[in-house]
Amino acid sequence: MTYSRLLLTAAASSLALAACSPKPAGPVSGAPIASLPLATAAPPAETPAPYANALPAAPPLRRVAAPSQSVYSYVDDAYALSDAFADSPPDYTVDYNGERPWIWRASDGEYRVVEDTPDGEREYFYRGDSDYPFLVRDNRYCYAYDDSGDLVEVYDSDGQPYPNYGPDVLEIAARYLFRARHLHYAAVHDQRQAAYAADWRARRQAVLAPQQQWATEQQRNPDWRRVHDERVQRPPPQLAALRQERSQRQTYAARVAPVIAAAPAVPGRQEGNRQEARAQANAQAQAAARDQHAQAAQQAQTAAQQRQQQQQHAQALAAQQAGQRQVQQRQAQAQTQARDQQRAQANVQRQQQAQARDQQQAQAEAANHARDNARQAQAQQARAHQAETQRAQAQQAQAHQAQAQHAQAQAHQAEAQRAQAQQAQAHQAQAQHAQAQQAQARQAEQQRQAEQHQQAAQAQAANRAREASSREAQAAQQHQQQAQMAAQRQQADAAAQHAQAAAQHAQAAVQQQHAAAQHAQAAQHPEKPKPDEPKK
């Protein structure tokens, strides 16, 4: 049930009540918003509400582990709501399964429902925005609920928390919650009826007595008093509305007091008669309790005898079991010692295995390190060998090049020698042919040719000398670059010297041939010196 729906329902009810029984408009002195005029006729016979354990069973409750506010705030809210209603009579009642619970409705939508039971008055308190009660009170306990219907706390009749409650109290709390929701629905939706003034006069003190008890406990209990004072010093908005509600209710109660006093007395409805009836009911309940206690005592005695027999049997059995346990303990100790020895051996084996694994791992790491070093050494040796091979190949290539150059030089030298021999033979043939054919006419020509041949021979000798010098320079350069090729350079030098000697020898041979030719020519045509010319 939402708060807006409650307001709409209350507004509609107020309009209907105003149409049926118009009242003069006024300030707080007017009647409460939902009140009906008290019925002044003799009331019908009462039908009390069931005992708590006679209420229908309900689903089990959940318990709040950590309340969101102080546990005293719930009883203090119920105290404040009852205080706001003051001693005004109920606003109305409804027919709820033949019973007639009394209903008070505040102007802000909060409700209090009171029903008469054989054990006394039972009260239900509701906030204006919920159909769950936030507190239910009977003549022994109070039960606080949160907005979801979970049980927050159980209190004694004075409003002090009672944490040591048993499962029967928890079951009663669940049944109260179930009944409270149905009562709230009936209070809001069922046909409203006027409460009887005679009934209010008879039960008024019973309804107001718990409020007086709470007021006394609030002053005596410092925890509750602290919560109450904090709420008064910082009043929430609904507290101001409750104060206005109390003022209006007190004025209304004073106005209807004559009506209540003038109500006809009904036999059995006087307060003394109700107290006597309750005393008789309490006496009957006490007698029933004594009977139950006696029966329980007898049952307890029987149970004690049975327990004693069971204890004796249990003691004998325990002695037997103790002997068996001692044997089992000795066996267990022996087994434990054996297991301890096995564990110790296993630990030693594990340690040895661990040491062996560590050694193996260390050996493997050392082997890996040695293999790595060997690989690095092999790689370095391979690189060194490759470099040595490359150097040897370079040296061999240089030696091959030097040998080729030497062979080429020797070939050039041999070719030059052959050319020189051929030239000498040619010259000799030409000289003989010239001597045979042109002994005289071409003597000068032969001389010039001999000179030319001599110049050519000299040029060739110079070329050969230059070539030899070049070879020597190249050999010297090779000697500077490669010390290991010294022997080959010496051979080259020797070859160059040999070639130079051959050139000199060829030049000498040419010179000899030229001299021979001159000598032959001189022998064939001797020249006579002229008187005026010097001799050559």
Explain the overall architecture.
This protein has 536 residues and is α+β, with helices and mostly antiparallel strands. The chain is built from nine helices and seven strands. The protein has a seven-stranded antiparallel sheet with strand order 1-2-3-4-5-6-7, with helices on both faces. The N terminus is likely disordered.
Average pLDDT over all residues:
78
Shape: rod-shaped
Radius of gyration using CA atoms only: 72 Å
Number of strands: 7
Which runs of at least 5 residues are low in confidence (pLDDT < 50)?
1-27, 285-290
Question: What's the end-to-end separation, in Å?
Answer: 166 Å
SS strand fraction: 5-15%
Largest sheet: 7 strands, antiparallel
Helix content: 55-70%
Structural class: alpha+beta
Biggest sheet, spatial arrangement of strands? 1-2-3-4-5-6-7
Number of helices: 9
Listing every helix as H and every strand as E from the N terminus to the C terminus, the arrangement reads HHEEEEEEEHHHHHHH
Throw out a few tags for this protein:
536 residues, alpha+beta, 7-stranded antiparallel sheet, 9 helices, 7 strands, rod-shaped
